Amino acid sequence: MQTQIINYIPKPAVSKVLQLLENDHLIVKIKRERKTKHGDYRPLSNGKHQITVNGNLNPYKFLITLIHEIAHFEAFQKFGRYIKPHGLEWKRTFQHLMLPFLNPEVFPNELLPLLANHFKNPKASSDTDVNLSLALKQFDAPNNKTYIFEVPYGSTFKIYNGKIFKMIKKRIKRFECMELKTGKLYLFNTNAEVELLN
Which among 56, 85, 115, 181 would be 20 to 30 A from 122, CA to CA? Predict the structure, then answer.
């Protein structure tokens, strides 16, 4: 399975990634798209450790997600199981592991300043970093989705689970939308992808 990873990450990152996985004796599984997460890490009952990553991610997003999950493993190994999942220990480990990859051989030049800024204080998901998320999405395969910030006010749209919303207004950083079925208001991040209905 480790050799299968070669097909999912930028070629200049392959040797470093395989070395990391070899040192940590991790099992990596490629999964179909999961809407709520890009990847995860968990210890297995047999004493081994498993990372899963969604196979639909572009190579740069896949690499960031993979290193994110390896950082969980290494932080737990070094600092114990009672640390916060995305606390200071994980942040420092993630920064340390990503540093060798943050160069123009691995990432396109236009991503490097955004990545440098993101890794000053990495978040639980790169999706919460709107600028980085939008920049990474340009490397995704084309789809029929529209960014929420492109949805005209008063228009309706559908999200991945089939729920239908109406665009109401923009708040400071997010968009207020009403679910048509319940009348409840929801806030969407700028980089949310939706299917425009009208």
Answer: 56
Structure tokens at 162: 């089939």
What residue ranges of the chain have pLDDT lower than 70?
1-3
Give the CB-side neighbour count of residue 180, counting CA atoms within 13 A: 13
Angle at 130 between CA 129 and CA 131, to 5 degrees: 95
Whole-angstrom distance, CA of residue 70 vs CA of residue 68: 6
- Within 13 Å of residue 153, how many CA atoms lie on the same side as its CB? 6
34/41 Cα distance (integer angstroms): 14
Give the per-residue pLDDT at 98.
97
Rg (CA), the chain: 18
| Rounded Cα gap, residues 99 and 97, in angstroms | 6
Cα separation, 157 vs 166, whole angstroms: 6
Measured from the Cβ of residue 30, the count of other Cβ atoms closer than 10 Å reads 17
For the chain, give percent helix, strand, coil, nearest 5: 40, 20, 40
Q: Do 176 and 168 touch, CB atoms closer than 8 A?
A: yes
Domains of the chain: 2-137 (3.30.2010), 146-196 (2.30.30.30)
Residues 63, 120: Cα–Cα separation, whole Å: 18
Q: Which of 54, 61, 49 is nearest to 21 (CA)?
A: 49
CB under 8 Å to 11, separation ≥6 — which residues?
Answer: none
Look up tokens 């572009």; give the residue: 58
